[in-house]
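FORM 7B: Structural annotation worksheet

SECTION A. Query
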Amino acid sequence: MPGDGMPSCTLEGSVPGHVHGDLLRAGIIQDPFWREQAHECQWVENCSWLYTKTFTLREDQITDWMFLHFEGLDTFAEVSLNGVVVGLADNMFIPHEMEASEAVRPGNNTLEVRFTPIAEAVADRPIGKYVSIFSPERIFVRRMQCGFGWDWVHRFVSAGIWRPVCLISLGQGRVSDLFVHTRALTDRTADLSVEIDVQARTDAPMAVRLEIMDPTGTLLYDAVHAVQEGRVLVDIEIAKPAMWWPNGAGEQPLYRCRGTLVTGRNETLDCRETPFGIRTVSLVEQPDERGASFVMEINGQPIFAKGANWVPADPFPGNISDARYEHLLSLARQGHVTLLRVWGGGIYEAPAFYDACDRLGILVMQDFMLACAWYPEDDPRFMDMIRREFDVVIRQLRNHPSLAFWCGDNELGMGESEESAYNGRAIADTVSGPLCATLDPSRPFRKTSPYGGTPNNTPDRGDCHISSWLDRDFQLSPMTDYRERIRDLWGRFVSEYVAMGMTGIETVRRYADEADLRDPSGRVLIFHNKDNPYNGIDHVDHFGMMRQTAVNLYGDSADPLVMLSRMEYEQYEWVRLACESLRRRKFDCAGLLFWMYNDCWPANGCSIIDYYGIPKAAYYAMKSGFKPVIACLEPGNDTVDAWLCNDRLTPTEAIVKIYFQSFTGGLRRQRNLRVCLPANAAQCVAKVPVTDMDNDGVLVCDVTIEGDADRAWYFRGMPREMPLPDAHVEVTCDPPDRPTTITVTADFYARVVTLHGGIIASDNYFDLLPGETRSISVEYPNTDPQPPISVTWWNQKRS
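SECTION B. Predicted structure
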């Protein structure tokens, strides 16, 4: 239902969904992801939209207690049933339950949901009173903040019933909440606390049958407890608990808890069941000479947090399927990720996200949805709204063992101190902090991110948002010291580390045409890159910064496709070197989360995985740099230091080979070491004098551990100065038509060997040593027709 001056239209709506998707399917708007067509659908947000549904009920389906349950409404909505207004909604993030008992009737029923344009809904609010980057009105709207436009996604303000809706009919009572958490844990026993909340419409006695099942389904506990004042509280001891561990540290066993509400005559009224894991989590901040440590401990073991920031996987999040969550999170597990931060400008993700994290062992740092603004803390209406929101969200998520800790917001206290009364502090002190302490005492709560030190964002304590790349002076320099900058940048827990790079060429061609790829202005590529107007780098956008970095590192080229390849690989280089540098500081630094893991729309910027779920070059760098045991080569003044980092919780024997490899095949100055790595630690194993390195090859450190391997390499000059010979790579595909294995062999040093075709490879964007053979397994992310697989390398011999 368009607004004033817009023609009226009627079309079939999708639920869950958003109006943009319905308009696209009806041909009313064009694909907003293609080229610059996002501009052409901005009118949608200025319209009102009416969803109508007719359904039939039998007489025996109607009870005295019925309500409509909307999992998600985006955003300002009035809900009517048979002409009776049963509820209003003003928050995209939480479910809405609306009493329907008086409005339903036997036979046909008509449900209407009317969405008001956001500009109209907030017209009475003091928009200009508060600071808000990217868009001013969003701070009054409890919907996905980055949907109003950010420095990596276009503005897409939609409307719709974006999560499922159902009509629920109840009898005398229901189980409204069920919470299980671990109070104390040893190898022998786990002390659990179970809290069950009950809503009733009778004064008759009720009880809850409580059952606990172990990961095999064996019943461990079965007892009936009387409901007292609407609650049941039970402490339970579990012998020989199977502990839940993050990815790489152990298994992820899931227990189950079931609460069945029964009457005094043992008649079942309602039942609720939840999986849970037995584990403890804490954040250890121990003062030291520089400030204080910041180490996450799971089950008493310090865990180095390896991961990235998660943003909504679509600007229209109702489009995100369970399979899409599974795909992205499975790639994270394969990439050795242990922690994802759900960033505060997005959404509280769907249950499928957290369920997958539970199964895959991926910890979650969960922000409340506040980001990069001054929110109206002096407005009681706003504070009441977020108090209701946070209460609901905490109850929804607190049973997930993957949820490690809460964070009050994203960057509201940036540049302030721990003690200062920055905007957002009152929210943390009076709303989110107390609610977490009351409703979820099993987890730490952080007031904001970054937080710690004076100012917040100091590397000496707490978490920090930093980047060796996003620096004005560096961007305007020749970047000859880029490895030293990466080496010298550190923090106790880096919760955002920015590194940018292009997507693969197959993905670029999904949002840009061939003319766009060769357009000297780069208009369309810049449009899909966006920019941060607050970065302080005058007259240079993010895309220009990426291009200049590629030129400085790898040299210029008149061929735009060559430059796109170099702009893709620069992110690989940054990510891998950052992993090496910060992991070898373990646990002086105890976490590295890249900005960002996934993407919200087809873009070419910060993400590790692109919008279509295809790994970028940076993914393979992250996967390599996050292995349980890695080699690191760190440049010093007169030496290059070889480090090994071991994330395994047991000592590990490693075979190390350090040598100088010429580009045409010869080995020089080889050293073979057998090293016993201490558990969960990093260790320097050798120092190589710079004078031992020539300019016709690279220093290599290979480490082999129990059949697994890693490699670090170092060239003493800038990468563009590498005197690479023309190389030939023999490529064998098995089977030839749709290969699942690709074998490559190089005669000379082959630089940045890349498998193209929109595939998922076991490894990609790697260098091959002279005479080296490597077999790569290949997966196809979908069954759609894909471009044929091809293999390229930078110093390819030209015929």
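SECTION C. Observations
Residues 560-583 form the longest helix (24 residues). DSSP finds 14 helices and 39 strands in the chain.

SECTION D. Sign-off
Analyst initials: ____
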